[in-house]
Amino acid sequence: MIRAGIVGGTGYTGVELLRLLVLHPGVDVTVVTSRSDAGMRVDAQYPSLRGLCDVSFTEPEVDALADCDVVFFATPNGTAMLMAESLLAHGVKVIDLSADFRIKDALEWSRWYGMEHACPELIAEAVYGLPEVNREQIKQARLLACPGCYPTAVQLGYLPLIERQLIDFEHLIADVKSGASGAGRKAQVPTLMSETGESFKAYAVAGHRHLPEISQGLAMMAGKPVGLTFVPHLIPMIRGIHATLYGRLTGDAEELQALYEERYAEERFVDVLPAGAQPDTRNVKGSNNCQIAIHQPQGKDTVVVLAVIDNLVKGAAGQAVQNMNLMCGLDESVGLDIVALYP
Amino acid sequence: MIRAGIVGGTGYTGVELLRLLVLHPGVDVTVVTSRSDAGMRVDAQYPSLRGLCDVSFTEPEVDALADCDVVFFATPNGTAMLMAESLLAHGVKVIDLSADFRIKDALEWSRWYGMEHACPELIAEAVYGLPEVNREQIKQARLLACPGCYPTAVQLGYLPLIERQLIDFEHLIADVKSGASGAGRKAQVPTLMSETGESFKAYAVAGHRHLPEISQGLAMMAGKPVGLTFVPHLIPMIRGIHATLYGRLTGDAEELQALYEERYAEERFVDVLPAGAQPDTRNVKGSNNCQIAIHQPQGKDTVVVLAVIDNLVKGAAGQAVQNMNLMCGLDESVGLDIVALYP
Amino acid sequence: MIRAGIVGGTGYTGVELLRLLVLHPGVDVTVVTSRSDAGMRVDAQYPSLRGLCDVSFTEPEVDALADCDVVFFATPNGTAMLMAESLLAHGVKVIDLSADFRIKDALEWSRWYGMEHACPELIAEAVYGLPEVNREQIKQARLLACPGCYPTAVQLGYLPLIERQLIDFEHLIADVKSGASGAGRKAQVPTLMSETGESFKAYAVAGHRHLPEISQGLAMMAGKPVGLTFVPHLIPMIRGIHATLYGRLTGDAEELQALYEERYAEERFVDVLPAGAQPDTRNVKGSNNCQIAIHQPQGKDTVVVLAVIDNLVKGAAGQAVQNMNLMCGLDESVGLDIVALYP
Amino acid sequence: MIRAGIVGGTGYTGVELLRLLVLHPGVDVTVVTSRSDAGMRVDAQYPSLRGLCDVSFTEPEVDALADCDVVFFATPNGTAMLMAESLLAHGVKVIDLSADFRIKDALEWSRWYGMEHACPELIAEAVYGLPEVNREQIKQARLLACPGCYPTAVQLGYLPLIERQLIDFEHLIADVKSGASGAGRKAQVPTLMSETGESFKAYAVAGHRHLPEISQGLAMMAGKPVGLTFVPHLIPMIRGIHATLYGRLTGDAEELQALYEERYAEERFVDVLPAGAQPDTRNVKGSNNCQIAIHQPQGKDTVVVLAVIDNLVKGAAGQAVQNMNLMCGLDESVGLDIVALYP
């Protein structure tokens, strides 16, 4: 059994990791830390786990975590970079769900995240955990940077088009919408029910922190820099991301449906819908799936890709477990056989 | 492997049965019927099942269903009573999620359901499928009547108080609230998003069809008739039932918390919360659990019980699978190890 | 023109007062205070008011407020009691939407609100602002205590039955449900979209602060103490309260519908629905109406009253404006001709 | 007083017209028709109107409607074109909220709406009712075609950029999101609470009926054909449209904020937000306003316009009343002084 620790167990990605790991047949969750709730039983905070999780929150200390085989960081940005080095030194595999190791350029990271990077020497080693792009590296990784929720949906949506150089890289437009759980479980006015419910808005249009991460990922696929306009929006619901991606075709477009189907034929968690379909976030709610459709409206040269994920699963905790499976030599889908909760 | 059939696979209880059964390790879903969608792949109608279910809807014919070991009816009221006898004659176990076999008095049934009962001779044999009350009978059943969603929550909530004769049976008040999925997946104006969203109302105050079912169940627990005021309400959400139950204490109330904990100590799917807690429907969303709390506000003689379930799981498909497990000699919880989807 | 000030303009009752007052033909809003947002334009904080409100938030100072004819307190509990005396001394009418002057017994108030009352000598003078009960006193009031949202719905629902002594006063049960805006516009986890959305729960079952206020009001109607079990619940929506009220009939019940219609025949903001109807919170959303229906299910001795209001209008700001109209000699409904926003 | 009739009073645009017209100081609603509800009081169907509307639904007959000064069609497509001619012949002004007279090319109209146009000779006379574009024509109109909801938001958003020829007309991208009330009040599965709630999807990506209307409108502004990719989405809420519009700048962009402010300086119902702001649909909920913001993310050549309206007000009934005011010589904003319902 893999001994797993979770640092930052009181946020939504933390409790989502618990939802997946307490039923994972190869994992034993031994440590769950939370500064604010140390000493409290986990299932007292999260009654959905009653009967399935008998650990209590502890302070985040390296000594206790060093006994784990794998430690997940479900912390705010800036925490994993302080503890990763010690844990690695103890032979612990580190899977970071925060943004600390996603951006390869430490200065760029600092500009977007507003702090100096505490551990820039580890950035190069960190593997970006998008299995559909770099599965082999993930299998060898000691330190894994889990992609952000928006970046997961946008990269999976654009991947076949960009790998095959079929669209104009300089004018990509990603109009993406997310449920409110993406904003996390913190006391704040803007995501109150009375503020977010029955309303819809764009935010961070001038520049969202996921922009450099997406641009970096797309540039690696393209083999050159890309120009991306990324507009995130807040949907009055809890879970789900819907990416509507636009690109101008430069090459032959006749086989787009087949291109997507082939690219993802072997991918367990990416599902290309039949031609003409339009994915709905409810069909991936609670599951680790990404459902994708590709359209070319009116036969014109603008292609439209629709991609949906559950931001807390394929966009966070589920993808982290998928990466853990790969890093630990398990089958990639262990613990992730989940049917989306419809309706 | 148990060969299972589902009659009426296009409603919410039908697709919820599929969600549970496609991952059930002891079941193979071989037939799913739907008059309206016959010929269509199930996962074309329900993309949440893509990759997990490769059957197509067929017409509801006895011949095909007769090859099953178990057949679930997830049909409107009035269908199961037409087919149950033939299936039983073929040795098929029948689990009815509709109301056809819940009420023991056929005339009473006719009054509430507005049609004559087509098969009154089977009513006596049908076992009412609330395992916490009559597990042993369920194990022997050929024909099982699954409780309604409201009746499940109300009966589990009142059970310990009534069994122990602690409250005035003549003036029970059940103020119960349900999400919109309880109204089913049928085209109608009142449960449109624009009608049900952002609003709250009581309905069927003069008399809801679940009233005689609840009264019958409580009377059996009490050993005599009960007087019940039952007011159902519609919550602007999809899944979940919250029952707020009131009763006037006639006996000693000091040990109510202990009473509930003891009564349900061995029950895998009924969870008595710690004293002072208040259950939240989100903590059972997608799971087969019932969470219960008991309060005696201000120390007065009115006791308040709070009970929550997911109407589609413990209130329908999950309880049906629990019953199937019992009827087929499996462990009661196989296929039902699910953590509620929070948030 | 009445010069009106609002203390505490950044909460939901504050902005709701502004919604009503900026279009009120007899009122000029001259001062809006907010410690946190002083200096900011009101319509920068609340873009719904752009073009209709050109004042800026100021610090809450008596000097500026003393120029007003009427000052509304839309503040947390404990603020109005510190400023009311000075404002009254300047000849300003004070309308308090918080709880400071609702409870006539200062010790009782302290027990429920957890602080000593700073101004107990004014409590006796304060008039409780439920126009349907004490309109004449309101017209003469200098200091008005606006009822809480739950108390408004419960008292209007029970009023005819209790005035006429038709039910058992010792065992009243009020099962009441509120939208999330009742919890106010403050940063906190429990009313985040991801916590409150798609879920339903009871809270404060052991004792809610509105319990003594309701009990006091019902006792005044009854002419003797009442025994009340009050269970509030949180609905996953923004606006609206639905009270489901239970009582055991002691007298003749045949004319309940007529009783309610007669009692409220002259009331502009209380609307008794036709026999058999069930009110829906959406039909009063944004309006100052209370819609009520009375039922006697199955002809038994338990009567069920259903009453709905918009918690921010008839339950707060609308009722405050209604009271202001009365106190200032205007027609009671000026500025309150609003059709509910359906759908 | 203007005598107004409403044909098709049972849909959401019909009841929204009633919400506005019953309080309009210059209008008397004399006829409301509904085939399905003829004979029923309007306020029995819509309790939000109790006390404000004492008419009953009648059959849609020209004789009765001919007594009106203005008749609004809030009907499904294909009805207004059958009755408009007779009403005009009686001197009645006709305001059509359906699509019958929006498209100037009758064949194009037939292709998108799937029926032959019954009255093509009137199409040329019909004035397209977007006052910000053609107010003077509206004042003279006998037959007015109210714009669709999506077209209103998209055209107002693009208008200044296109009039000034600042963007590439061949590759416009309109990613637009609507609440569920846009789908109307008809019994159907896809907009049930359990289908639409807690989910998000794109629809009609291959071609939505509003595409030719938007293209026609933009082409008139541009003076030449435009190439538009229009992707509508369904938001899990009731009211509101959010348009996110993309364009590639071809000219000088430095003064975009000033350009928008100047273009709309005199427009009562179009509100350009301060630089950097992002509009939220809740801030126009229930009001006739369109709030707009213009962004140029990262200083690149892709401009992003955000525009929000309430689909039932500025996108339907409110704009219809605005047009009526113009056609009848009233001030444009009479009856439309409404503060959005926040929260």
Automatic annotation (TrEMBL), chains A, B, C, D:
<comment type="pathway">
    <text>Amino-acid biosynthesis; L-arginine biosynthesis; N(2)-acetyl-L-ornithine from L-glutamate: step 3/4.</text>
</comment>
<dbReference type="InterPro" id="IPR050085">
    <property type="entry name" value="AGPR"/>
</dbReference>
<keyword id="KW-0521">NADP</keyword>
<dbReference type="GO" id="GO:0003942">
    <property type="term" value="F:N-acetyl-gamma-glutamyl-phosphate reductase activity"/>
</dbReference>
<dbReference type="Pfam" id="PF22698">
    <property type="entry name" value="Semialdhyde_dhC_1"/>
</dbReference>
<dbReference type="GO" id="GO:0006526">
    <property type="term" value="P:L-arginine biosynthetic process"/>
</dbReference>
<dbReference type="GO" id="GO:0051287">
    <property type="term" value="F:NAD binding"/>
</dbReference>
<comment type="function">
    <text>Catalyzes the NADPH-dependent reduction of N-acetyl-5-glutamyl phosphate to yield N-acetyl-L-glutamate 5-semialdehyde.</text>
</comment>
<dbReference type="InterPro" id="IPR000534">
    <property type="entry name" value="Semialdehyde_DH_NAD-bd"/>
</dbReference>
<dbReference type="Pfam" id="PF01118">
    <property type="entry name" value="Semialdhyde_dh"/>
</dbReference>
<feature type="active site">
    <location>
        <position position="149"/>
    </location>
</feature>
<dbReference type="InterPro" id="IPR036291">
    <property type="entry name" value="NAD(P)-bd_dom_sf"/>
</dbReference>
<dbReference type="GO" id="GO:0005737">
    <property type="term" value="C:cytoplasm"/>
</dbReference>
<keyword id="KW-0560">Oxidoreductase</keyword>
<dbReference type="GO" id="GO:0070401">
    <property type="term" value="F:NADP+ binding"/>
</dbReference>
<dbReference type="InterPro" id="IPR000706">
    <property type="entry name" value="AGPR_type-1"/>
</dbReference>
<keyword id="KW-0055">Arginine biosynthesis</keyword>
<protein>
    <recommendedName>
        <fullName>N-acetyl-gamma-glutamyl-phosphate reductase</fullName>
        <ecNumber>1.2.1.38</ecNumber>
    </recommendedName>
</protein>
<feature type="domain" description="Semialdehyde dehydrogenase NAD-binding">
    <location>
        <begin position="3"/>
        <end position="141"/>
    </location>
</feature>
<dbReference type="InterPro" id="IPR058924">
    <property type="entry name" value="AGPR_dimerisation_dom"/>
</dbReference>
<comment type="similarity">
    <text>Belongs to the NAGSA dehydrogenase family. Type 1 subfamily.</text>
</comment>
<keyword id="KW-0028">Amino-acid biosynthesis</keyword>
<keyword id="KW-0963">Cytoplasm</keyword>
